Fold this sequence. Notes:
By secondary structure, this protein is α/β, with parallel strands linked by helices. Helix content is about 30%, strand content about 30%. The protein contains 17 helices and 33 strands. A 10-stranded mixed β-sheet has the order 24-23-22-25-26-33-32-29-30-31, with helices on both faces. A 6-stranded mixed β-sheet has the order 6-7-8-3-9-10, sandwiched between helices. It is globular.
Amino acid sequence: MSIVLEDLTKRYGGHPVVSSVSLEVGDGELFVLLGSSGSGKSTLLRMIAGLSEVDAGRVTLRGRDVTDLPPAARGVGFVFQSYALFRGMPVAENVEFALAVRGVPAARRRRRRDELLELVGLSGLGGRMPRQLSGGQQQRVALARALAHQPEVLLLDEPFGALDAKVRLELRRTIREIQRELGITTLFVTHDQEEAFELADRLAVLSFGRLLEVGPPDELYLRPETEFVATFLGTANLMVGEATPEGVRLGPVQLPLSTRAEAGTRRVQVLFRPEDVAVRDSAEGLACPLLGRAVVEQRSFVGSFERLRLRLPPIPGVRAIAPPVPFGQDEIWVEATRSQDLARRFPLRPGDSTFVGVQRVHALVHPGLRFLLLTRFGEETSARSRSALALGGELARRAHARVAVLGPAAPDGSGDRALQEAREALGGGLAALETRLTAEPPAEAVAEEVSRRPCDLVILSLPPRDGVEMAEEVLAAGQHHLLLAPVEGGTSGNGVQPPARLLICVAVGEPGKEDVSFSGRLARHLGAEVTILTVLPERTRDPQEEEQAARFLDRSARTLRRLGVPVDTRIRKGGVREEILAQIAEGKHDLLVLGAPLPGRDGRIGLGGFVGKLLPETSRLPVLIVRSPEAVS
């Protein structure tokens, strides 16, 4: 193997931007790292090149451990997005530079320079200055310079990012031809999927510093293993259905699988690409299973094909993941593409009705929810730990969630005993259970755990002192939500009585949508009723404020009813704290949902204000704090 990465990790400000990445790239392979901005792909490349220090892990190039070697000793060539040419040197000197600093004789430098300029299509331009070249030509010079000293590995960091589409296409082909001619192992970083598909022998998808999947482009596109990769690579229609011995089922619709179906019934995510969707003017005209009758919402001309967005009525028992259903609506959206030939033979316009079938589907294992439980940290008593474990275990059983438990490591072995007690308290019936000891305080322990494997919900009981501060730190440790368990709770045969009446307190606007969506998903698993509450001032200067709140609550209720959750809505007027407490008493609610406050100027989510004042007065209730995308610090 030319490149071997072992558990490579890089942190900035204590937060991992590359998290335990292990990867192997074969000799002569053109391997692409694909990810959105901030996914860690450029940082990973810079660690391989020696331009960024490695916090943990090892880099091996052609069998040599180069983790601690300087860049010049690693045998790599690096091409940057910004060209990084020496502006005061002509093209010839730029290409020769790496050879000159290595003391290569002038005659050999000139010979190598001329070979490379011919290879990249710049023969005869050695005397020009960089400013006299186009962007595409400058990047060709940068490529020639990176290859001058005959590196064992070539690294390219978004090399075409600043170029227009036509030049990008030409340079992609140039890179591929040169790479094949030289047989040099190449690692190429990009956020452009088309670029990745065209260039890669294999590609890896990164997200938030984690390596999600690796494989040939067609394999990852047609048969992804994760929801993120399914929706990130191209356009996806993704819905939650069930696996059956015959294939998969979406509500009443049975669909065959091209891959082997497992016996039994289980929840799966059903993927079909736009090109797998068939549209016809009659159900009989479909040579594939009928999904339903849809209305054409949008039609777009995209050169060689036509793109359609279709709106289907709700399918009983089916939840759409992608395209996402607009908040407050219950239709299902389907993306379809078809050739211009088909579009001419069966023309469709927005508002037209058409029958929709699916020709090919792929099933992914449904990941479900993942809960992280903390037990016996600091001053937290065993009673508080048992409360969090009992509540978390009951919620996990109802939601079919996977559970991880973190316990404190201790020299006297009490940590092992705590984890054994946790396993006994959680009992059976869980989708999955893993336990781990940690010597870190709660916030650091959570940050380390979610960097390894993200979770949806962290569950803990707060200590009597500094509880709000701990909650802030745990909430800031990742992108998860936070459930604060009460010290005491009603019991059932399996532990605690699961919440049956949720109160979701929302502010009108975008952050409130996530409060409703995540809480509704939890309520569906619990079979619970929901009240959605917003509180307005006793006297408002804006007469439309109440009307706007009513519209938002109506859309929120429709979103939950689509999930099969019984829901009502309330608008109360007065002080927020007083009205929430009054609603809890009147409605006999047993779980309170609050939205996380938006980050302050320092980027931190502070709970010391309204939320912090409300928590002591609701200490007998579980409190779920939901962070929306707008509340990401």
